[in-house]
Amino acid sequence: MSKNHHKVIIFDTTMRDGELTPGVKMNLQQKITISQLLEEMGVDIIEVGYPASSQKDFDEVFHISKIIKNSTICGLASSNSNEIITLAEAIKPAIRGRIHTYTPVNLKNQSKLSKQEVLATIKDSVSLARNYCDDVEWSAFDAPRSEPDFLCKSIETAINSGATTVSTPDSLGLASPEEFSQLLQMIFNRVPNIDQAVVSVHCHDDLGMAVDNSLIALSCGVRQIECAINGLGARKGNADFSKVVMEVLKQENYQLGINTSLMSKAAELIFQITGIGKAK
């Protein structure tokens, strides 16, 4: 094992998923301030926006890509080739850029043909992203509700096509820690090339389990946690950044590169911008 085996990668989506919080919008200047603080904190990956969704998001990702030097700048795209190309343009100025693309994998009640089509879409979209960027993350959208065989095949296909990180999101925030742990253990046991990528989780807090699910994932072999400051995010929000960091630090066998002395400053900044306080 490499000496980084136990390094936990922190992926912050305060600015991307955080803008899905009802009533929350951030402007370019606010996002610059947030991203500079995240970089100062030592956040590994900063997800800034969804460039194909609006000119606003494109401009934010592009501008922040020029400013940030140490953290990896990331944007989101569906498996639509135009969205991936738009995202590739947006992160072009970044010293370290990442393309994050997702494909819905909950195909219950669908025909075998449509499953083959989805696998082809995963292959094509991840391969396209890799043409533009060496750092590609692929997310299995709605993973907990998808068929286990198809989920495993989808993840295997994404890794074979060049995904360097694969994420298993609890997209609807409905998995219990036991269910989520079983899902992840199955993936690690059944996806033959799983050790060729970093495995990530992105947990929503609809049942109040986002932090618990993120932490239990580490013991299954997950090495990246996606979270947001003050738990911002769609519906009930994402795993709360500072809670995740503090809980990981309590466990001696993991390393984190986060400067915890700046976390309260970050929580206060997000509160000032959004009016949403630190998750209790």
UniProtKB/TrEMBL annotation:
One Pfam entry name: HMGL-like
InterPro entries named among the record's database cross-references: 2-IPM_HCS-like, Aldolase_TIM, PYR_CT
The organism of origin for this protein: Nostoc cf. commune SO-36
Classification via PROSITE patterns: PYR_CT
Coiled-coil boundaries: none
Sequence ranges assigned to domain Pyruvate carboxyltransferase in this UniProt record: 8-264
Keywords: Manganese
Name under which the protein is recorded: Pyruvate carboxyltransferase domain-containing protein
